[in-house]
Write a structure and sequence with these properties.
The complex is a heterodimer of chains A (about 260) and B (about 625). By secondary structure, chain A is of the alpha+beta class. Chain A is built from seven helices and seven strands. In chain A, α1 (about 5-25) runs antiparallel to α5 (about 95-115) and α4 crosses α5 (about 95-115). Classes of the chains: A alpha+beta (about 260), B mainly alpha (about 625).
């Protein structure tokens, strides 16, 4: 029962890695750390624990197929576990951490118990042969694979750059919306402008309500927005125009609200 | 240490007949012969092929005329390399075969990433993104999806993606790409192991994955952030578990694999309706096939797995996914030629009218499959005394190519429906076609090890590679994206992937954060889809008349009231371009007949309707609030 067989050693390692990932993911708020420690909790560790619980001596699946089942089982158990979480506390970050850790813990116990049993004589099984990367990789193979990664990286950079350049649009968003938006006859409204020019812009905003006119010149960085609250008067329509300060005659956006009745 | 191919496991001598006792060289038992073989070289060559496609995409974005030719060159190289490697090599290492099975989905997913490296590009992806956003916001499933109600009722993809988002704090787009990328690679890996279990031949298994990769929706549609992408690998995993169940000598092991099959079936069922029906169909074939295999190959477990999966499908569809029938009925209508609500149910396909070369390639590939699939099915049938039920079931299933052919030719939306059906039909078809092609290009052990004569059937290997390339070209030509969006580029009206840009993305996102949820939106079909998915607005149909008049008529006013239209979204580009897919609206009475864009007045008329407010403008897209006009 306490023999530290090869599968048991792996299960201990699996539990330790899961514990580290869960603890770090629970306390971390750093993006890269979350990715490194969070991703295995979703896509690898639960499945690995399940596979080792079901087949600790690698009688059924080995090598690449075992790795395939590991990833698939992780996804599967998280999907079915998600349905369970929906019935209990909800699909929150904390509950995902608990689910992933609990699956590994339960599977590890089952795997530990099963990994202590000697393989039956009818189906003699070897101890699991650990994967040794060096058996697969020569210097030549590594060099060629590195070249392939380099080619793919180049293609990705090329795609990213040309896509960014091609999809870059330059425009200004303007809106005028009753507050709250669900009440079209509200006496208050919001006038908003957002700069999507891809660079700083100086915008001239003109507001007209009945015969009164107001004007603002605002400097907005790329992605910045400006809002102004408007008090609507009954029987008067409200309209606004936006133009660039460099060319105030050319209106880039025009919004209005119908008369309040 | 990498070893020469000549010293590799000589699996090529084994005839590719289906057997219940496949001759397998176990992973990890190759001792000193273990190595990657020529996988690195193949990987580099395939990477270079994808680079060619990336350069073609870059050229297309800047309007270069050579981009299209370069795209096809890259695709030919991408498919020819693994096909030639598998057919010309005297012997294949297990690592080489599995390497190709992995490289194929990786390379094709890279092409999708090159097409759109930083955001979703397909409208359906935004629909599923809404389901995911709702889960992340509420922490619960099954909330209403304003754009695709059935999406929320099959939440498998969104559940696993929400786990990734929650645990890694990555964006929805990045998390979605990780999950779909893993799922896409899983399809290749699992199909490889499935065929390997059935025939015991790594070469046949790898070739089956390459054939499957020629599917019309393989490169893009089946890799998008849509529910089918996560369901297909679990369909294959269910079949793999069933095969292992059948092959297990021990009852306890067989029972375990049966439980695994049911669990994988459950994931399929909660992830995608059509895939779960496909799984039921294949399992039914396996149950039937049991009647034709020797008594020793029959068992009670296969019917049990089938019944449990059917029970789960029925239970889920009736108890949870109650919107399924409403969603599927229009597809059936389209299939049967009745007047469905799909924009293309009566006239031309969403693919538009394919250019002649594309049509020729598409039909050539279909013709090849029509010839090869029955040959393979016959070969499997002949060897049924030595097969298990899954082999025979897949052999029978390969004849589904004729059903797909009928759909392609006879249905009003044949190209689209046949393309979707091929994602499932190609599972058995790739299995039997791989058997046929590899058998004819196989190397004999008594051939010289060097020189041209080392290829037993040099001509057949060339022919086999050519067949594979034609299958790939036909799949791409008749598949997704359609020809007008096959390469990225500037915005085009009604062009699916080419109809997503910053203008409608920003406007729809603004609507999602500023407008009340669930308001009815009237617009052209693509803008409306964006607003219903990203903007959380209700998706309405049959609105074309509102945009086909140049003045605001009493009929328009009646339509607005009847359909409860809250907002009109006017994208001025529909008054500047004709629709690439042939339609602006869903459905469109003038589909396929637009010779010029709509008149400007069809949109500008809303500026002068009393009570209508112009609440948003970004220079290209204007949103009108009709609340005041309804009074």
């Amino acid at each position: 029962m306490t023999t530290l067989t090869s599968p048991r050693r792996f299960i201990v390692l699996l539990v330790a890695v899961t514990a580290v990932c869960a603890v770090v993911a629970a306390v971390s708020s750093v993006g890269a750390v979350d990715i490194v420690f969070g991703l295995p909790l979703a896509l690898f560790l639960p499945g690995a624990a399940l596979v080792w619980a079901i087949d600790p001596w690698a009688h059924q699946v080995k090598g690449a197929q075992r790795a395939t089942w590991t990833v698939a089982a992780s996804i599967g158990v998280m999907i079915l576990g998600g349905l369970l979480l929906n019935l209990t506390g909800g699909l929150t970050r904390a509950h995902w951490l608990i689910l992933s850790s609990a699956v590994v813990a339960v599977a590890a116990v089952v795997g530990w118990l099963r990994a202590g049993v000697e393989p039956s004589p009818e189906a003699p099984a070897q101890e699991h042969t650990p994967f040794r990367l060096l058996n697969y990789l020569s210097l030549r193979a590594v060099a060629i694979l590195a070249a392939a990664v380099l080619v793919v990286s180049g293609a990705l950079v090329l795609s990213q750059r040309t896509n960014t350049e091609a999809s870059r649009e330059q425009f200004v968003q303007a809106w005028m919306l009753p507050q709250p938006a669900s009440n079209a006859f509200s006496t208050t409204a919001q006038l908003g402008v957002k700069n999507e020019e891809g660079e700083d812009a100086v915008l001239v905003i003109q507001l007209k309500q009945g015969s009164s006119t107001s004007s603002w010149t605002v400097h907005l960085g790329d992605g910045q927005q400006w809002t102004h609250e408007i008090h609507r008067e009954v029987g008067k329509s409200v309209s606004a125009t936006v133009a660039k300060a460099s060319d105030p005659a050319s209106i880039v956006a025009r919004v209005n609200l119908a008369k309040l009745s | 240490m990498t070893v020469s191919v000549e010293s590799a496991a000589p699996e090529a001598e084994m005839p590719p007949v289906v057997s219940t006792e496949p001759v397998l060289v176990d992973d990890g038992n190759e001792g000193a012969r273990r190595g990657l073989g020529r996988v690195p070289e193949v990987a580099l060559a395939m990477a270079a092929a994808t680079f060619i496609v990336a350069v073609a995409f870059a050229g297309a974005r800047s309007g270069k005329s050579w981009a299209n030719d370069l795209f096809w060159l890259g695709q030919i190289v991408l498919y020819a390399i693994p096909a030639a490697f598998l057919l010309f090599r005297r012997s294949i290492l297990r690592a080489e075969a599995f390497g190709i099975a992995l490289l194929m989905p990786v390379a094709t997913f890279l092409i999708l990433a090159y097409y759109s490296p930083d955001q979703f590009r397909f409208i359906d992806e935004f629909q599923h993104a809404q389901t995911l956003q709702t889960i992340l916001a509420t922490h619960h499933l099954f909330h209403v999806n304003t754009s695709l109600p059935v999406s929320a009722q099959y939440p498998g993809l969104e559940i696993i993606t929400s786990a990734v988002v929650s645990l890694t704090h990555l964006s929805i787009t990045t998390s979605g790409m990780i999950v779909t990328g893993v799922a896409h690679v899983l399809v290749g890996a699992v199909l490889y192991f499935l065929v390997l279990e059935l025939v015991g031949r790594p070469r046949v298994a790898a070739f089956a994955t390459v054939i499957y990769a020629t599917g019309p929706h393989y490169q893009f549609f089946d890799s998008y952030f849509i529910y089918q992408t996560i369901a297909i690998p679990f369909l294959l995993l269910t079949l793999l578990a069933v095969v292992k169940m059948i092959k297990s000598d021990k009852a306890a092991v067989a029972n375990t694999w049966g439980a695994v099959a049911i669990a994988c079936g459950a994931v399929t069922v909660v992830s995608h309706h059509i895939t779960s029906y496909g799984l039921v169909a294949i399992l039914l074939l396996v149950v039937i096939a049991q009647l034709f295999v020797p008594r020793a190959g029959r068992g009670w477990r296969v019917p049990v797995v089938f019944i449990v999966v059917v029970g789960m499908v029925v239970g889920w569809d009736l108890g949870v996914a109650t919107a399924t029938w409403h969603y599927i009925r229009p597809i059936i209508d389209s299939l049967l030629g009745r007047g469905g609500v799909l924009p293309n149910s009566k006239r031309q396909s969403v693919s538009g009218k394919l250019p002649l070369p594309d049509t020729i390639w598409e039909y050539a590939s279909t013709l090849l499959l029509v010839v090869l699939a029955p040959l393979g099915a016959w070969q499997v049938w002949k060897g049924r005394r030595d097969e298990n039920a899954v082999s025979l079931g897949l052999g029978i299933g390969a004849l589904s190519i004729f059903i797909v052919l009928v759909v392609r030719v006879a249905s009003g939306d044949g190209g689209e429906l046949a393309g979707r059906a091929m994602s499932f039909a190609l599972i058995p078809i790739s299995f039997v076609c791989a058997i046929v092609i590899v058998a004819r290009a196989q190397t004999r052990p008594d051939r010289p090890k060097h020189g041209i004569r080392r290829f037993q059937n040099f001509g057949m290997a060339v022919l086999g590679t050519g067949v594979l390339v034609v299958l790939a070209l036909g799949g791409i030509a008749g598949g997704w994206p359609s020809y007008y969006a096959r390469l990225p580029g500037s915005y085009r009206v009604s062009a699916y992937e080419r109809s997503i840009d910053e203008h409608n993305l920003d406007a729809a996102t603004w609507a999602g954060s500023h407008l009340p949820r669930g308001g009815g939106v009237a617009s052209d079909d693509f803008t409306e889809s964006m607003f219903s998915s990203l903007g959380n607005q209700a998706y309405l149909r049959n609105l074309a008349p509102l945009f086909l008049t140049t003045t605001y008529t009493a009929g328009d006013r009646s339509l607005v009231k009847r359909q409860r239209i809250a907002f009109v979204v006017a994208d001025k580009r529909i008054t500047e371009q004709t629709p690439a897919a042939g339609f602006y609206f869903s459905p469109d009475p003038h589909q396929g007949n637009y010779k010029k864009p709509l008149a400007g007045a069809t949109l500008n008329k809303f500026n002068s309707v009393p009570g209508v407010s112009r609440i948003y403008d970004n220079g290209t897209i204007v949103i009108y609030d009709l609340a005041g006009a309804a009074k």
